[in-house]
Write a structure and sequence with these properties.
The chain has 7 helices and no strands. The protein is mainly α. The protein has one domain. Helix 1 packs across helix 3.
Length: 112
């Protein structure tokens, strides 16, 4: 679970760069880089979806709808050749990451 928090650090960096580049563009590249890292070096798709779910929830909590759309798991769907039936087995990991994002949002990683 700690490896999924690495995505949140990257998301924090994205919020710092939002004045130079649109946040949704950073989100698309962040999503793709996180997928490639987890697929090649990291723990795999489950950790990718946990980190992505946490980022997705925090992006929605910050009121950034374009960033939330950029953080959908589109690289995984493309890798699976849009086979949604195979993707359904990985949805619980996305939900687990969204729960982590919800807890972080409630604990205080939010703007007041």
């Amino acid at each position: 679970m700690l490896e999924a928090l690495g995505f949140l650090l990257l998301l924090a960096l994205a919020f710092r760069l939002q004045r130079r580049v649109p946040l949704w563009a950073i989100g698309v590249w962040l999503n793709l880089l996180w997928f490639v890292y987890q697929n090649e070096v990291g723990s795999g798709w489950l950790t990718y979806l946990k980190g992505l779910g946490a980022g997705l929830f925090l992006a929605a909590g910050y009121g950034q709808p374009l960033l939330a759309w950029a953080l959908t798991p589109w690289p995984l769907l493309l890798y699976l050749r849009l086979d949604v039936r195979e993707f359904l087995f990985y949805l619980p990991a996305l939900g687990e990451g969204m729960l982590l994002g919800g807890l972080l949002y409630l604990v205080g990683f939010r703007r007041r």
